Amino acid sequence: MLFRVARNRIAHRITDEQVLGQTSEILESVGDAFYAVDRHFRFTYLNRKALEQIGKPRGQLIGRQFLEVFPQAEGSGLHSSCIEAMRDGKAREFVGVSPILNRWKSYLVLPRPDGGLLVHSRDISAQKAAEAAMNESEKRLRLAAHAARFGTYDWDVANGQLFWSQESHAIHGLPCTGSIVCERAFDLIHPEDRNRVAAAFERGLDPGGVGFWSIDYRILRPDGQTRWINSQSHVVFEGERGDRKAIRVIGTLQDVTDRKAAQQALMIERMRFKTVVEHVPVGLLLVEIPSGRTLVGNLQVERITGCAIPEDPDAWVLDRWKGYDETGREIPAAAQPLAITMASGEPAELIARSPRQDGSMGWLRITSAPIRDPNGDVTGIVVTIFDIDAERRTADTLRDSEARLRRAVEDAPFPIMVHAEDGSVVHLSKAWLTITGYAAEDIRTTADWIRLAYGDGAEAVRMRVKSLFERDCPVDERENVVRTADGSRRTWSFRSAPIGRDLDGRQLVVTMAVDLTERKEDEARLHLLMREVDHRAKNVLAVVQSILHLTRAENPADLTTAIEGRLAAMARAHMLLAASHWAGADLAAMSVDELAPFASADRIAIRGPAVSISAEAAQAVAMSLHELSTNAAKYGALSTPAGRLELSWRVEEQERGERLVLEWVEDGGPPVTPPSHEGFGSIVLRQTVEGQLGGELVLDWNAAGLRCRIAMPNDCFSTAGTTDSSEPLNEAFDEGQVTGPAGSGARVLVVEDEALTALAMEQVLLDAGLTVLGPVGRVEDALELLRETTPDVAVLDVNLFGQTVFPVAERLLVLGVPFLFCSGYSRLDDVSERLNQVPLLAKPVLADRLIATLSSLMTDRTVISAGVAAQ
Predict the structure, then answer these.
(1) What does the pLDDT read at residue 851?
(2) Residue 69 DSSP symbol
(3) Which helix (H) or strand (E) holds 348?
(4) Cβ(347)–Cβ(384) under 8 Å?
């Protein structure tokens, strides 16, 4: 009877809902089967549960007669109940085995206003089986109820006695006592639910009702817990019509707290889903299949597509949408993803431009994916609409940026590589390929480069390259020796830095290389040169010491002159070596430097092929030429105006290699007689040529003049990289003719920071009858002195304690004072044109040469002054 009451309530609700036009929504939501037939017994509606039980699709049932589809139901109790209800317009109940499903079913047949019927069926096969099992064994029922956590109760309505099973007591948290008064049971119901439960009981006990109810309510257990209970109740009536009354209520009790919690969680999830759908930054549509109805649609669809979601759920929102492909062609409806998925059941995607609500055009991506039921049938389609306008514009910008980056990298004048975290080489400069000799096809990945450039050391380099993508800052790597295509080695210094990601999302790193090979070689040469200079400086000091010990003279003046001459020869050799970066000294230039002080028209001829004296032999050859020149100037051909000198050399082939032969021939000088003993010059000459150079020396004291032949082995010279010098030396400059300086008593400003050099120069000037101002060793001291007085001439050292003397030189130019530079530099770079015309004497300078140059400067000044006065 309780079941009947519930059905009547459902029937009334259905009738009410029909008025509201929402019947199908309700029937689809319940768990029982419902179907409707018209007055001709043709199916007009079947809910989801009915279709599941029958096992036929809706399309095979709607519009067909009941017996046409299910002829086996003719004459059954269900068929008869339907005929009677249609005849008298009264509801019918029928319980029996379904002629269609062969299962126990409880039917409620409800007449409809249009003459048709609404049939509600509930599968009670399980209940029938339970009843049979209960009849078979009460113990098994109790065990089953206990296992299922069901409690039972039996209420004697007449005397108000309530009997609970053991499980019912346990559900309520009470000890098992058999019976309980109804008031006590009612007190356990939550106060907020008591009125609702009382109303359900009242309706269930109504003699005119169905005599069944099911209700969920809360209880308060003695231990303080709140639990949800589901009560299923069936009322037993006695009597007929007006005498009918409820005498007994039998029901079940079940603790459904967990189910309620799950329902609450489900409701929360549904609310969250609704919130997510409305707030996700993409458009979402849920379309039913096969009807095409729009079940879900969020506001993002309207924003992205510019089309409002229609109020009619049967209308497709994209019917009014216009999309255009990359070429501007309008996309037909059949090519849209939803249409493709509806036709094929497969996912689809489309990228298109679409007009916005503000009239602008934007890029969007539409995807569609099918929703399938457990049988694999498509029941719906999810359509997602993404606004990718900013992404596309960013991609276009990034693509342009990558193109510019590629051009910049490829045309870079130094090695540069852009590589990705997957090992791909994205861009590579031409300089990288040119220097290494590899082709671009050889270096597709960083692994290719590491294998080619590092060989056995590849693993360590591979780990360093991998670590570059784990850092977010520039990395300076140590110097690496890389192998080129021709097998040579080059030294590169690398600097790497992350530069973001490319269009494929790969992280990129740019690696730039500086080729240090030439610099390293220069540094090595510089270190070698520094060691060589150190070595040579010590050797020079040793030679100077030897000159001081070995030089002999009758008086101090001659001693000073001899020492100065030999030191000057050494200095000139060193200047020639410095000019060639210690690669060698040109023999012709060396000969000219040694003989220049004694040259006059047609007196000296120097001839020979291009020869460079090695750095190791240059000083010895210079000293030899100096000894021969000094001897010729004192005793030989250069001691008289009529004397002549010819210096020539040639390269001869021998079995043990080439040798250089120098011929020194004097004529026209005083008669020559062989010396009675070997002098210091001859000893130096022989020791130098034979001992140091490993050559041969032949001295022929011919009466017409000295003949000297010097032969040197091939490790003392080279014929590569020099030019021929076969012209006679005609420049006239005879320092020996200077008997005294012009302008004796003139004031000479001496600017020199080396104390000993300054003292020696002061003594030379004083000995020549000149007045010395200074010496001063600082630029500011020299300028201060010039503010106090004006000299007649000046001698300026170039480098003064890290400063140049040029401010002093400029001041002297303004004052009109002639001057010369006396410096260890063989030439001056980066000076003005006027300063470039100033005489430069290289240290160490001979006293005669210094006095002669100063005399020339003062003479020129006197001539110029006289000319100005005459004007």
Answers:
(1) 87
(2) H
(3) strand 348-355
(4) no
